[in-house]
Design a protein that fits this description.
This protein is α+β, with helices and mostly antiparallel strands. It has ten helices and 21 strands. Helix content is 26%, strand content 19%. A hairpin with a 2-residue loop joins strand 4 and strand 5. The chain is globular. The strands form seven sheets. A five-stranded antiparallel beta sheet has the order 13-14-15-16-18, with helices on both faces. A four-stranded antiparallel beta sheet has the order 1-4-5-6, with no helix packed on it. The longest helix has 24 residues. The relative contact order is 0.08.
Length: 499
């Protein structure tokens, strides 16, 4: 049996946790970090084959030291010039010269740990190289890392399901991201052209995955009457990560360090709804359209909050190429944020959603499907078909799969036969009626096992179980978008004057 002192970062061992049925289980977990306070050690663990949002700090009582697996030493491998070398697991480096500008010096001044300084130093050195190439080349491309590609290689991993490999697109423009969160650092001042760009992407580049970004850094967020437990890392300022609670204004999403600061801010904040235009209202539900260029601070604060609950998307401070559609619930105190989705102003790949999120207090209440339905209503007004940007999170994939299934089945069941013959419809007609991209229609039909080959032609067969299940699901789906309440005029973003 190993001693507690031998448990280091990289070790794997069973860890006690409660499952959904509140029963004890011992899944294998990896130690990501170790800290000691008041003479007791705590361990930050990631459960293997579990989502990162379940990662947590545990004490030694929950570790099974009998089955510990120590990290393997890196084998020495030849380097590019043929000389023997080794790949260090977590090298200890001397502090480097401050070549990354004022942000790194600010981080050093607040007394951040050495590993955080190293992370920021490497991060900004790479961004400086990217910025130089951006100026010299004009339209750079940054390939999506192989781990991002493989994570969503199979969209529907069931028998007979369509398999789509999400490959990096060579012509996509990527945004230069920045870890700094001060308002001054949010402007483009490091050599990147300030002219508005037409496209962008929020797909996470996993090449920057680091021990810092793998760990949750915010303990708790207070947003209005709700307290939220973040699921993932979000690059809020380092000095705020040590606080037990981070306070946010629920109307402008400004973050402050204490309740007193929040109360002082609320006396000066005039907002009672998101900035931008209200383009939809029915009952207590409203949608606001926010331009990422005109309302940059709000958009950046929204991205910071969303990153706490989205792992597959990354945060970029260049919000100019994006529109944000924020869904709110109205009461006597104002319009309270429920969720949002963002989309590119001009997408070359027919994306109608870049990021989509329903905040945890409002999940499992039909708001996710309402956001998805609204995104497709906008596509209908624009006269386009659309699809969400890949990869989707596990919860996002479930929501989209459910929405596509219900929408397509709703159309198929509304078809009526003429002259006693079977009703006929094409894939293109379904796509035009719903604004769902043709590939998503085909993959959904295959996922539902509706396509059959009969007497030389493809037919769609609806079983009684599918019909019955669909009718039950539609009875539960109370929240729907009413197209009559939508007041939206699409813009041609290819014209520079619209910016």
């Amino acid at each position: 049996m190993a001693d507690l002192m031998e448990v280091i970062e990289g070790c794997r061992l069973p860890v006690l946790r409660k499952n959904q049925d509140n029963e004890d289980e011992w899944p294998l977990a990896e130690i990501l970090s170790v800290k000691e306070s008041n003479g007791r050690k705590s361990f930050y663990v990631h459960y293997i084959d579990f989502n990162k949002r379940l990662d947590e700090w545990v004490n030694s009582d929950r570790l099974d030291l009998k089955k510990i697996q120590f990290p393997k030493k890196e084998a020495r491998t030849p380097t590019k010039n043929g000389l023997p070398g080794s790949k260090p697991s977590s090298p200890e480096r001397e502090p480097e010269q401050n070549t990354t500008g004022g942000v790194e010096s600010e981080i050093r001044s607040v007394g951040c740990p050495q590993y955080y300084q190293n992370f920021v130093s490497d991060y900004f050195q790479k961004r400086k190289v990217d910025a130089v190439s951006l100026v010299s080349q004009g339209s750079p491309t940054t390939p999506i890392s192989s781990s991002s590609e493989s994570s969503q290689a199979s969209l529907y991993p069931q028998n007979g399901a369509a398999r789509r490999v999400v490959a990096a697109q060579p012509g996509r423009k990527r945004k230069a991201n920045c870890l700094g969160t001060d308002e001054d650092s949010q402007d483009s001042s490091d050599g990147i052209p300030s002219a508005p760009r037409m496209t962008g992407s929020l797909v996470s580049d996993r090449s920057h995955d680091d021990i810092i970004t793998r760990m949750k850094n915010i303990e708790c967020i207070e947003l209005g009457r709700h307290r939220l437990k973040p699921w993932y890392f979000s690059p809020y300022p380092q000095e705020l990560t040590t606080l037990p609670v981070l306070y946010l204004c629920e109307f402008c999403l400004k973050y402050v360090k204490s309740l007193r600061c929040l109360q002082r801010h609320l006396t000066k904040c005039n907002l009672r709804h998101p900035p931008g235009n209200e383009i939809y209202r029915k009952g207590t539900i409203s949608f606001f359209e926010i331009d990422g260029r005109k309302n940059k601070n709000y958009s950046q604060n929204l991205c910071l909050l969303a990153k706490c609950f989205l792992d597959h998307k990354t945060l970029y401070y260049d919000t100019d190429p994006f529109l944000f559609y924020v869904m709110t619930e109205y009461d006597s105190k104002g319009f309270h944020i429920v969720g949002y989705f963002s989309k590119e102003k001009e997408s070359t790949e027919d994306y109608n959603v870049a990021c989509i999120l329903t905040l945890p207090p409002y999940q499992r209440r039909g708001y996710g499907k309402l956001l998805i339905e609204f995104s497709y209503e906008l596509s209908k007004v624009e006269g386009k078909t659309g699809t969400p940007e890949k990869p989707l999170s596990d919860l996002g994939l479930l929501s989209y799969r459910s929405y596509w299934s219900q929408t397509i089945l709703e159309i198929l069941m509304s078809l009526k036969s003429e002259n006693g013959e079977r009703p006929q419809i094409t894939i293109n007609e379904i796509s035009e009626m719903t604004s769902i991209k043709k590939e998503d229609v085909i993959s959904t039909l295959q996922y539902l096992n509706l396509i059959n080959y009969y007497k030389g032609q493809y037919i769609l067969t609806l079983s009684e179980d599918i019909v019955e299940g669909h009718e039950k699901a539609m009875l539960k789906r109370v929240l729907r978008i009413d197209p009559k309440c939508l007041h939206f005029t699409p813009k041609d973003w290819s014209k520079r004057g619209k910016w």
